[in-house]
């Protein structure tokens, strides 16, 4: 067993262990923090598929996070006010069912990723970073200036949505849902990286010309990766909105894109469990430094700077060493 | 839509575009010469605005405030170049994005810590306050007109610097082949620090000038930064000419879109929904412009490489 495998097991266990200890000590706030970490990790796992495997530096993943959030907000707000979403040409009602909301969030963000990816992937390098940033901002300003769903103020949902057989308002049960999804997606992402598709995608990152020579199309590989990545981040957005029972245009802001990227980098780019380590560390820092100083972002900035300048490979890279050749 | 209102909005768009150029010129120079994406450029804009507001508060002089803005932004730029940025030239764009994102966090929270969360106010100097009558009977704020003038002058200065001076030749040579100019005995790292400080000073100047018509607050640089990125992507990264054309295009699109689109949608929609749809589309118009440009010219209007 390599050190990274061992570390992954520890990382995988950290969140449920924290939540269970907090449950035993009756500390619902800590459980909510662990839930938040699991959901943000999920968003990071999504980005990591594009960023780590595909080498696509997307600074616009807030678009998918926000779309997932608004999918939940719009459906649940219609269900809460008993008004249909639309009546012509056919009737669409709002819903309080998480399963339906997740489906809608995944499909919406996947379609958005397909459109954004098809346009953005025509460019490379800095242009790609900037065009994804621009698409994110486009949706951000759209959400702000579209008054039907709260505009700048966002949308509040009074009761968390329903999951069959569970009481979602109970922190530990909602944690179980979020962590369950994270576990499933981590498993899927791990399989994906080892599958034919993942290997071809990695190869396209390392040397696109060679991949083309053996008869694969890098553009198609990247587009599929971008869509999967967007869909996972969208699902995370729906869960995040449900956690807060609130959606606002902030979910679309480029700071959100930057933060999702920070989880990936703090943990380690291209490492399966990187986003889990990064998100957990981020929440830990937010909670501890945020308690010490109102200006904790200064310390976060300094730490991030040190990681980028000196600890390449992030937390996992520093602890486990360069066992995975990721560049 | 009356003609007078339209001309006023065109002037507003020009003023906005000229300010964007001050930001975009630095960004595009830094990218062209050093190959670096600097997300923290908006923080330098903020540093300029805060330095100007603080100095204007102490001394009451707008001229001193402008000098302070230039000096503070250039100094901050040179400092981060020496401490952080020069370690990033050989890194990939991902590292650059993250390190400069970290710098934003440090600058923003540091400024909040120093000056507090409340916005500061920088007054338009008395001599430039008030409107001026333009030919055709248009009343327009004198200060905004002065901003357009200053911006165009600086643009001319930057073009002159790049095209005619020794430094400019070195900068262009650095864009073309950095090993070669280092081999020719030019101190490349000093040149880089200078270019970075120059870009920072332009951003600081923009921050101070705009600070007098908007409030000076933490985070003020970020919307402008993103627009400046849109500008240099439209214009072609590395091209000063592209930055100028892109700035004016984005400034005009943003300003005129907000004025013209809602009535335009009103011609074929109900008035109430036309206003909301029109303003929603207007707020996205520059991004739509950018996507449109990139689809036809994936490396921008003047990005020849």
Strand-helix topology:
The complex is a heterodimer of chains A (327) and B (305).
Chain A: H1 3-24, H2 28-53, H3 62-81, H4 98-120, H5 125-145, E1 155-156, H6 171-194, H7 196-206, H8 208-213, H9 218-244, E2 246-247, H10 254-267, H11 274-292, H12 296-310, H13 314-320
Antiparallel strand pairs in A: 1-2
Chain B: H1 3-34, H2 41-59, H3 62-83, H4 93-115, E1 131-134, E2 138-141, H5 142-164, H6 166-176, H7 178-183, H8 188-211, H9 221-235, H10 240-266, H11 271-296
Antiparallel strand pairs in B: 1-2
Helix pairs in contact in B: 1-5, 1-8, 1-9, 1-10, 2-3, 2-4, 2-8, 2-9, 3-8, 5-6, 9-10, 9-11, 10-11
Can you offer a commentary on this structure?
The complex is a heterodimer of chains A (327) and B (305). Chain A has one domain (3-320). In chain A, 72% of the residues lie in helices and 1% in strands. Chain A is an all-alpha fold. Chain A has a two-stranded antiparallel sheet with strand order 1-2. Chain A is globular and about 55 Å long. Chain B has 305 residues and is mostly helical. Chain B has a domain at 8-218. Chain B has 11 helices and 2 strands, in the order ααααββααααααα. Chain B has helices at 3-34, 41-59, 62-83, 93-115, 142-164, 166-176, 178-183, 188-211, 221-235, 240-266, 271-296, and strands spanning 131-134, 138-141. Chain B has a two-stranded antiparallel ribbon with strand order 1-2. In chain B, helix 5 (142-164) crosses helix 6 (166-176) and helix 10 runs antiparallel to helix 11. The model of chain B has no long low-confidence stretch (mean pLDDT 87). Chains A and B meet through helix 5, helix 10 and helix 12 of A and helix 4, helix 9 and helix 11 of B. Chain B: It comes from Sulfitobacter marinus. Chain B: GO terms for molecular function: transmembrane transporter activity.
Features:
heterodimer; A: 327 residues; mainly alpha; two-stranded antiparallel ribbon; 13 helices; 2 strands; globular; B: 305 residues; two-stranded antiparallel sheet; cell membrane (chain A); transmembrane helix (chain A); LivM-like (chain A); transmembrane (chain A); branched-chain amino acid transmembrane transporter activity (chain A)
